[in-house]
Amino acid sequence: LAKTTQPISMDSYEGQEVNITCSHNNIATNDYITWYQQFPSQGPRFIIQGYKTKVTNEVASLFIPADRKSSTLSLPRVSLSDTAVYYCLVGDRSYDMRFGAGTRLTVKP
Amino acid sequence: ETGVTQTPRHLVMGMTNKKSLKCEQHLGHNAMYWYKQSAKKPLELMFVYNFKEQTENNSVPSRFSPECPNSSHLFLHLHTLQPEDSALYLCASSQTREGDSTDTQYFGPGTRLTVL
Fold it and tell me: What DSSP state is assigned to residue A5?
């Protein structure tokens, strides 16, 4: 199982772009990179998934360099409601992925 | 979201009680999961059922007993729990598939369990 490393916490202000980087040096060829968001006392929610280069959806972008040993979740123009814990997971099947400690993002007014 | 439902949402039980947590998914998925989330700790994967067969048991104490009667329902039977078992118990489901992407998990709202 690929191990991931993320910053424990980050602070930002409303309207700013936030980039959260995840390291996964032992990512396997078949592994995808998936990010989840979790609010207090709720289950995690899928944000975005990618394999290589760049993926963008309506809420976030995911940048993956050619070596795939890291990835960066980019949240454009964050608001107070984006305050949550963000998890980076790596694997080729959900049951092979493990949640780490995640990154606690605090958005300030 | 109502794709994955869990009941009850809150449960208080004594150490000698027997209770069950229920999870139901309405997404047509073929895999279901139980997670435990204690305060200020990462989510811990407890059990995985893939096509109704248990494929993983992460050294969970026997006082937790899972049951998956069909691909839409998952239970967690609890007996003689300890106070340290108090936590948020989350159920999730996913559709495992071959192809150019991997499956993602859909989580229920969780059951907040307190063991007295």
Answer: B
Which chain B residues are Cβ-neighbours of A100 within 8 angstroms?
42
Dist. CA A36–CA A31, nearest whole Å: 16
In terms of CA atoms, which chain A residue is nearest residue B97? A93
Instruction: Supply A15's token pair.
Output: 């309207």
pLDDT tens-place string over residues A10-38:
999 999 999 999 999 999 998 999 999 99
Residues of B within an 8 Å Cβ radius of A: 4, 31, 33, 35, 42-43, 45, 48, 50, 55-56, 88, 90-92, 94, 96, 100-110, 112
Cα of A94 to nearest chain B Cα, Å: 6
Q: How far is B34 from chain A (nearest CA, A)?
A: 11
Phi-psi region for residue B35, left (φ > 0), alpha (ψ -120 to 50) or beta?
beta
CA nearest to A44 within chain B: B107
> Could you read off the pLDDT tens digit of each residue along chain B, which spans 116 residues?
579 999 999 999 988 889 999 999 999 998 999 999 998 788 999 999 887 677 777 789 999 999 999 989 999 999 999 999 999 999 999 987 766 567 889 999 999 999 99
